[in-house]
């Protein structure tokens, strides 16, 4: 056990150099302190925040609307989206419920996690939708997606997809023909 004076000196030094330590009684040992940098968010928090922003934007919801749905301010939503503030399990569940996704959605694409037996964690939960290309942050792409999801008739949706694919194929054919000449 460290003496209380030494612990207090260490806490003062950590605060001075930009680190924070959990508050503890002076009689606690130094190993009970969890130290983290104030300036750099954890990569998992940043990834979860980006996924939150992506889904919110796809659905066309404002930060204020999502905040009202789960009971926080839009400033808090901004901090979650940038990874500055960490989300607890209950808050993550609230976001998943408000955005109509599974909790696993927020972790898709971050890394493969397995248990001791090599089975993927969350194996009992069905696979969340995967996005091969997350380059959908442009306003034009988001407008197309929002308009598409407002179409209620599945047959019309299917024909629109076929039309877009035809345009893309035709565009590729034209590009290949121009480069051959």
The CATH H-level superfamily of the largest domain is lambda repressor-like DNA-binding domains
Global geometry: extended
Percent in strands? under 5%
CATH class identity of the largest domain: Mainly Alpha
Largest sheet: 2 strands, antiparallel
Uncertain stretches: 20-33, 127-133
Percentage of helical residues?
40-55%
CATH topology of the largest domain: 434 Repressor (Amino-terminal Domain)
Rg is: 24 Å
Nearest-integer average pLDDT: 74
The total count of strands amounts to 2
CATH architecture of the largest domain: Orthogonal Bundle
Compute the number of helices.
Answer: 7
Structural class, judged by helices and strands? Answer: mainly alpha
Textual characterization of the structure:
The chain has 181 residues and is mostly helical. The chain has three domains: 4-37, no CATH class; 41-137, lambda repressor-like DNA-binding domains (434 Repressor (Amino-terminal Domain)), CATH 1.10.260; 151-180. The protein is 53% helix and 3% strand. It is built from seven helices and two strands, in the order H-E-E-H-H-H-H-H-H. It has helices spanning 4-16, 43-58, 63-70, 74-82, 89-99, 139-150, 154-180, and strands at residues 19-21, 35-37. It has a two-stranded antiparallel sheet. It starts with a helix and ends with a helix. Mean pLDDT is 74; it is low at 20-33 and 127-133.
């Amino acid at each position: 056990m460290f003496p209380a004076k030494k612990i207090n000196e260490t806490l003062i030094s950590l605060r001075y150099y930009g680190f924070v330590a959990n508050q503890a009684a002076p009689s606690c040992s130094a190993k009970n302190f969890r130290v983290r940098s104030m300036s750099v968010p954890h990569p998992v928090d940043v990834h979860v925040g980006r996924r939150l922003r992506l889904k919110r934007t796809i659905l066309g919801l404002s930060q204020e609307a999502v905040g009202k749905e789960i009971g926080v301010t839009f400033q808090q939503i901004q901090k979650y989206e940038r990874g500055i503030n960490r989300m607890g399990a209950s808050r993550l569940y609230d976001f998943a419920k408000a955005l109509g996704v599974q909790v696993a959605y927020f972790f898709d694409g971050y890394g493969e996690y397995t248990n001791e037996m090599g089975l993927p964690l969350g194996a009992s939960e069905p696979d969340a939708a995967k996005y091969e290309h997350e380059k959908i942050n442009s306003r034009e792409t988001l407008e197309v997606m929002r308009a598409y999801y407002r179409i209620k008739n599945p047959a019309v949706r299917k024909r629109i997809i076929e039309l877009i694919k035809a345009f893309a194929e035709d565009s590729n054919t034209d590009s290949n023909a121009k480069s051959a000449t």
